[in-house]
Each structure stands twice: as structure tokens, then as C-alpha cells.
Amino acid sequence: KAGVTQTPRYLIKTRGQQVTLSCSPISGHRSVSWYQQTPGQGLQFLFEYFSETQRNKGNFPGRFSGRQFSNSRSEMNVSTLELGDSALYLCASSSGQGPYEQFFGPGTRLTVL
Amino acid sequence: QQQVKQSPQSLIVQKGGISIINCAYENTAFDYFPWYQQFPGKGPALLIAIRPDVSEKKEGRFTISFNKSAKQFSLHIMDSQPGDSATYFCAATAGRRALTFGSGTRLQVQP
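The joint structure predicted for all components is written out below.
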């Protein structure tokens, strides 16, 4: 099976812009979770989508949003970018049922200038 | 109460030695405890995981020890190899909710 894919791998944006990141989960997986990884805050949960519905949400401002499509692919959007949004954004795929194993993609490295 | 505390922050081990990383949690609702390995430029990779109904799980050179009463769990890497040099994260979750991660341990295995 192919693993989790994320596009793009690298992004450079300026403050105030918005960005959309994409994640394709492992075939057959219906749950997609997003995490932000920074040196200072570590790995922090953003939100989870299961069958096109947001099932869990972390403690991030409303500028961070996401959605999931019927083929389980997910997108994450960050509006009005701030310097502190520079991070590695990771997508994790899970079946969403039974044993809760999450498999991570390689991440998208976002740099905000 | 959602926090998972991980130690040490960094660890240097000689090739062939045992690497031990510890984690402690407060939330007694946690019911799944995975360990992830992350190499630079890569996403975290699931190594091994345990549920609180067992005290130990072993997969190859990797072993999780779990102490429910102390609310602690640890990762042991036997016969550590230079290829094991990476950052290791413990995590915990309750009821298939979000993973709460420890702060990470940077392991360096010297040849």
C-alpha cells in the first residue's frame, strides 16, 4: 500500500497570505488528522476528519481550518498567516475504527516571512 | 491533565548498548500508548504501541514497559545501532481521540 502523501513538501509565504495544504491518506483509511510540529511547542494536534466530518479539534485559532472530501483526501487551510505559523505540518492517516494506529506523512514545511 | 512528560531530552549511547526513554502521564483515561521514531526531514513513524492491560510488549529490539499504577511507560532499545539515531516521541490517547505527544528525545548512538 502506498503511504500517506502530502503536497506540497515546502512552501514559503509572507505574513497575511493564506495557504492550503493537501493530504492523501492510505487507501481505505477514512480518518485524517493534522498536527503542527515546531521546535518550541513540539507536536500539537490541530483537528481530525472522519468521513468528511470534523470529529476532534485542538486548541488552535479559527484561522486554521480543514475539510475532507468523499475520497478521504483532506486539505488544511491557514488564513492571515503569522510568523509563528512557520512549522512542519503533518498529516496522519488512520482507519478511524478499532486499534488507533496513526501513520504520518512526510509533512509540509511552511515558512512564513 | 492532558500532558505527557518525556525524559531525557537527549541521550547518547554506545553501539550495542541499551537506550531507555521514559514517559509519564496524568490522564487515567488514556488507553493507547504508541512510540514514534522520527528522522530529520521525515514524518514520525510508528514503532510500537501498548494498551494498559499488558505490562510489556516486545517487537524485535524494541520493548515497551508499562506501569499502570505509576502512570509511566518506557521504551527500551536493545543492542542500539547507529541507524537508531533519531528523535523518539512517546504519545498517548483516550478513546481514539487526538494523540498527545511527549516533547521528544534525541538519541545518538555512537559507533
